[in-house]
Structure formats: C-alpha cells, structure tokens
Records
---
Amino acid sequence: MKNLFKLFAVAVVVLSFASCATYQKQAPIMGINSNTVNTYVKADLDYKNAKKVEGKIESKKLFGFINLNFNGDKTLKSTNRYRNLTKTEAQALYRAKELNNVDIILEPEFERETHSWFFGAYKKEVVIVKGWGINIKGIKEDTMMNPHMPVGGGLFN
C-alpha cells in the first residue's frame, strides 16, 4: 500500500511538470474603408481625441468547464464583423470599452496566451485586446447609402 501511495505521489509530481503553452494574436485583414455597416446613418467620429485603449481578461478553468475566477458576464460582440469572438475576447473588448469610456474600438487586435497543466485538466488563459478608442460626436442620415429613402426626406427631418 505504501508503494502504491509513493508511486501515485511520484506520478502527480511528474504530471505537474507536463505543461504546454500557446500564444495567439488576431488582427483584422481588411482596413476601415471596406468595413461597411448598412444602417443608413453616418456617424460623426471624434478622430481628434482618439486614444490607444487596452482591456485584459484572465481566465482559469479546471477540467475545461469549472471557472476558478469570475470575470463577470458582460461581453461586447458585434453582429457583423466581430461576431465570432470567444467569451474571453468579448469580455476583454467590453472591459476596454468601459474602462476607457469610448463608444467604438477601431481595429481591435487580440492577444491570447494559454497555458495548461496536468494534460489540460487545469488551463490558464490571458486575453488582451488593443485598439483605438473613439467617441461618436453625432449621427445623421446617409441618404446616399439608402436607395429606398427619398433625398431630402427621412428620419431626421
């Protein structure tokens, strides 16, 4: 029995040194000019006061589904361009937007660092998003983009 316990203890020590790490960075391939949103309004963006923003989320999980730290349920996802974000990416985007008091984050880049131990039983992930934070000064109707709206008439008259 003692030998079995010693063997188990040695196996736990050996497994604790078995780990792997990955690093991922995601950035958009297309520039701002080709990113159109068909809402038929034009936004007056405050480019003059644009600033670099950053948001960071750290996640620790046991067995892939037991959260060991709680980052909240607030996420920011887009229905068009950034709809395939993971939960931690969406949380980092939300945190960056709220902490920096901006309306939009232009060209967000995601950095992901993942470490796992005990053959994936315990995983630690850090996601950092960086981009340009910008505020909207106002909006107006875009009659050139809306083929169904008569020129001179519409929502904001």
---
Amino acid sequence: MDENIEIPELMAERFVISYYYLSPQDAERIEAFRDCSGDSEKTLITQYVRGWLGRNRDYYLDLARKDAAAREISFQQWGETVVNQGIEALPAYRQALNNIPPSPLRDVALAPSAERKALNYISLGKQNLALLRVGVHYDRDNAIGFVSRIVKEHLDRNWEKLYASQVAAENFENWK
C-alpha cells in the first residue's frame, strides 16, 4: 500500500430536524417494520432519505452545479460552504438561475391527517447533506416538509413490495 496516500477522516454529518409529519397509516407501517426489523425510527428515516438522494443524485448534483455557477464560485467552494455553514452562507447570485427542472417530489403531498413525529436528527455523508440542503432550498418547502414527503414517497412506493411481507412473516401462519 502506498504510504503517501492520505485517507480523509470520515464522519457522518448531523442534519438537525426535530420532527417530521406522517399519516396515521404510515406511522403504523413504520412502527410495525421497526418492531420486526429492530431498526430505530431514526435509522429508517435516515435510510429513506439516503435512498431518495441516491436515486435522484443526478438531479440534485446538476442543481447544485447550476447553483454554484450562478453564484460564480467553484463547485468545491459551494460544497464546503453548504456542508459547513449552510445554503444561507453562500454568496449572492451573480447571474440568474433559469430552467430549473421540476422537483422529483413535486407530486408528493402530505395527507391532511399527517401527525407530527419527533426525530431530532439524521446522519448523512457530506455530499448527501449538501444535496439534501439544495433539495430543500429549491423545492420551496422547509426541511420538515421535504423529509416528510420523502418518507411518504418511500412508503407509498415500497410498502407492498418490500416491507409488508416481512411484517406479515412475523406470524408463522403467514409463511408459505
């Protein structure tokens, strides 16, 4: 192994989000899967957000690059600022940012019956943290609404094909 290679210190970043919203049905789903998987609710929500960012990485990276270009700063400087200080710390736009593609979450709406659920924070890698922040910024929602909609989208898309059978299998009578 090359002794001159510097390995960066890796440490997840905390994205503070004190709560999110969940429909009563989705709250039951998360509780049931949490009970059978042994995962904490915070772990599940973190996984859902990471999965969303992974599936939509190209969209959010493109948006981040356009944002950096409109502010006339390097992408590296943009990333360091967003991770360490937040979007608010970026310099003002120097040129207009036009032709922003619609958000992948644009059609996801929370149920009127959604209830507040305590969360505290989720842990993300540096790039995921920056992409989440740029997603929130351009989605025109706050972080609570954005994460809540990611959770709703994840459960709508995956409950039947990924989770329901695992929950049902906790009862031996459902094994086939």
---
Amino acid sequence: MYSNQDINEINARIRKNWLVLTPVLAALLAAYVYALAARVEWLAMVAGPLLFVAACYGILAYLWPNMRYRSFLLDMADGLSRDLRGTIVAIAETAEPQDGAMVLPVRVKLAPGKERDVPRASAASARLDMEADEDTQDERIVYLNASKRDAFPKPGAAVLLHCFGRHIKAVEAL
C-alpha cells in the first residue's frame, strides 16, 4: 500500500510549503528591519507581530503536519512489522488523526488458534490461557490510512495484514 512515491509526494509538499513561506517571511522581516532602522514606529508595530503570526501559522499549520507524516512514513519503511491473520469485522466511516496521518479504525477478528502477542506474566497465567475456551476469538483494532481505503478489502473478507505498530502497512486477501 505504501511506496517511495508516498515519501516523494510528501517531500514535494514540504518543499512547496517552504517555497511559499520563505518569501512571505523574508518580506515581513525586511519591513521589520527597515522600520527599526528608519525608526518608523507604526510599521515596526505592524510588521513585528505579522512576522511572528505568519511564521507560527506557516510552520504549525503547513510544515509541522507534513514533516510529522514524513517521519511516520520513514519509520514505517524501516520499522519492525508483524502479521495479523483474520477477518475484517468493520471499517469506520469517519477518519481521525493519528501519528500525522488521517486514519480509519478497522476492527479485525483474529483467526482462532493464533498465539497472542501479549506478554504473559507467569507460567500459570499462560496455562490458564491455554485452558480457556477455544471458541473465543481475539478482536483487534488497527488503523488504515484514509487515503488508502480504495485498495482495501471490504468487511467480511479474510485477510493477512502486515502492520507497523497499529497501522496497516500492507494487506493480502486470503
């Protein structure tokens, strides 16, 4: 689902944001420096706060989310992944932000008999887990990037999910 094209696209978006933000900040900084040098008090009082607001807004609204998403993509490419085999129960309709990406929560019912990746506290608790009812199935919530929804199987499909943390990295229909 993810490729180098995704990283290239986010890098291009970051470059574009810098190319727009830099001249605006340079013009406001030039006006502020001129106002201080020429002792034009009203211009300094206008240019200073505008410079601060433009820098904060440009960085926090445009650059920071894109840089955070790029960091997430780079971590996903290099990080450890795990496989989950199961059936898709439901896919949420509304996206929510997480780790710099807009994601859709996906409920997956794991296939029975698969070992859980939850650490056991003791041998006794492991034995009790093994003696538990085999009909109970483990259900997990993983996250699907909202922009990748079109290529994702529908609810009810048996899938093998390759996950990075709680995020779906790749999917294979079974």
